[in-house]
Design brief:
Length: 265
């Protein structure tokens, strides 16, 4: 399967290049970077820390979609929306790991998914997606007497907060309780906030160092606390999940999928 990588010179982009090159089921279709990037013209194998592949980073995104069966996108929300339109135009499956997507952006993916397979997940890790499923299940079992708090920590360079994964965990907890996250979320606490509102789902964001990604969902009540935790120590887990998702689209038609579909959760 021919797989292309958007944002191929970034930290995730390089990991994705390496994962595709080393996958026996995949062939690297190409990689793109923004106009003016110093990586333009550099061999994609070299960017991945491997032998030269005879393909270089390009700013021609249209050509990348033309050459690929599936394209993996870990870029920015604004860029991803444009990429989704190109994917539909070329009939190319799209795998989206971009975080910070607004509801309007997700609506765009949903519209595009009427024509092509789109996999959208705030986190491509197999372990994290198991955590999503567990969080929804535990939230459904426990009543509102259990307060839900989600704590996440990432490296100091991460620009969005709470993380897409933390929000995904919040949506999973809300789904388990049969409510809408936006109606019950408490994203910031500062000053004299008063007692905690029953049924709310709280978020705490930490940033520092080179932390790849730590997430904990707490269910706290009088006398006990249950904690579900996932800690990523290597971005390779996200790359492996994304390539697995791309390969999965070979046998599946147009629709908006999540990693839970890929994993059968």
């Amino acid at each position: 399967m021919k797989i292309g990588i958007l944002g191929c010179a970034g930290r995730m982009g390089r990991m994705l290049l390496k994962e595709v090159i080393e996958s026996p089921e995949a062939e690297l279709a190409g990689g793109s970077e923004r106009p003016g990037s110093p990586a333009l013209g550099v061999d994609l194998g070299v960017l991945a820390g491997l032998d030269a592949q005879g393909l270089t980073a390009s700013d021609n995104v249209d050509a990348l979609f033309e050459a690929a069966d599936a394209v993996i996108d870990f870029t920015t929300p604004a860029a991803t929306v444009g990429h989704a339109a190109l994917a539909a135009q070329h009939g190319t499956a799209l795998i989206v790991g971009t975080t910070g997507m607004a509801e309007d952006d997700v609506a765009m993916l949903r519209e595009v998914a009427k024509a092509i397979p789109v996999v959208f997940a705030p986190n491509m890790s197999v372990g994290v997606n198991l955590l999503f499923a567990l969080t929804e299940r535990v939230a459904a079992i426990l009543g509102e007497e259990y307060d839900i708090e989600i704590v996440e920590m990432h490296h100091k360079h991460k620009v969005d907060a709470p993380s897409g994964t933390a929000l995904g965990l919040g949506r999973a907890a809300a789904a388990g309780r049969g409510v809408v996250l936006d109606d019950v979320a408490t994203r910031v606490r500062d000053g004299v906030t008063g007692p905690r509102e029953s049924g709310s789902i709280g978020f705490a964001t930490l940033r520092g160092g080179d932390v790849v990604g730590d997430h904990t969902v707490m269910f706290a009540t009088e006398g006990e606390r249950i904690e579900l935790t996932h800690k990523a120590s290597d971005r390779k887990v996200f790359a492996k999940g994304a390539v697995r998702a791309a390969l999965w689209t070979r046998n599946n038609g147009p629709a908006l999928y999540t990693m839970r579909d890929i994993l059968g959760l």
